[in-house]
């Protein structure tokens, strides 16, 4: 459908140019401010635009990206963001393991996974809105 629309618009422009002569200037409406097909930046609004702008700054306001992996030791625990004082965490202890070990993580000291011993720490997180 879009190709038909573009072909039709192109035919109208060509017809207008032929009618005015070869040296005539014709005002043509474009779909984007710079001409051509609009980009995601041109079309994004609302929450999508907010997320795109934050991603450009290197931020992740809604925790959409995977967390940064750390060694998981007591000195360098995996940081788990939360807006409350506790959060449930799932640990896949071995790479090829199909079972997930679930446990509650509470604010304060680092806590260990009951199965593999990887350390986790709850850190406060503020919502973007």
Account of the protein in words:
The protein is of the alpha+beta class and 129 residues long. Helices cover 26% and strands 19% of the residues. The protein has three helices and five strands, in the order H-H-H-E-E-E-E-E. The chain has helices spanning 2-20, 40-43, 46-56, and strands at residues 78-82, 86-91, 101-106, 111-112, 119-124. Strands 1-5-4 form a three-stranded mixed beta sheet, with no helix packed on it.
Topology record:
Layout: H1 2-20, H2 40-43, H3 46-56, E1 78-82, E2 86-91, E3 101-106, E4 111-112, E5 119-124
Parallel strand pairs: 1-5
Antiparallel strand pairs: 2-3, 4-5
Q: Give the radius of gyration.
A: 27 Å
Strand fraction equals 15-25%
DSSP E strands, number:
5
List SSEs in N-to-C order.
Answer: HHHEEEEE
Derived from helix and strand composition plus strand pairing, the structural class reads alpha+beta
**Which of globular, elongated, flat, extended, rod-shaped describes the shape?**
elongated
pLDDT averaged over residues? 80
Distance between the termini: 38 Å
Largest sheet strand order: 1-5-4
What level of helicity do the residues show?
A: 25-40%
Low-confidence stretches: none
Helix run count: 3
Main pleated sheet = 3 strands, mixed
In summary, what is this structure?
The protein is α+β, with helices and mostly antiparallel strands and 129 residues long.
């Amino acid at each position: 459908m879009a190709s038909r629309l573009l072909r039709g618009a192109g035919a109208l422009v060509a017809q207008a140019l032929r009618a005015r002569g070869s040296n005539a200037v014709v005002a043509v409406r474009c779909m984007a401010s710079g001409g051509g097909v609009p980009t995601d930046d041109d079309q994004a609004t609302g929450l999508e635009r907010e997320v795109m702008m934050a991603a450009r700054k290197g931020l992740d306001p809604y925790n959409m990206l995977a967390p940064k992996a750390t060694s998981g030791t007591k000195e360098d625990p995996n940081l788990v963001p939360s807006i409350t004082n506790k959060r449930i965490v799932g640990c896949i202890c071995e790479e090829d393991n199909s079972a997930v070990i679930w446990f509650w993580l509470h604010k304060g000291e680092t806590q260990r996974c009951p199965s593999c011993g990887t350390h986790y720490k709850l850190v406060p997180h503020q919502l973007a809105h």
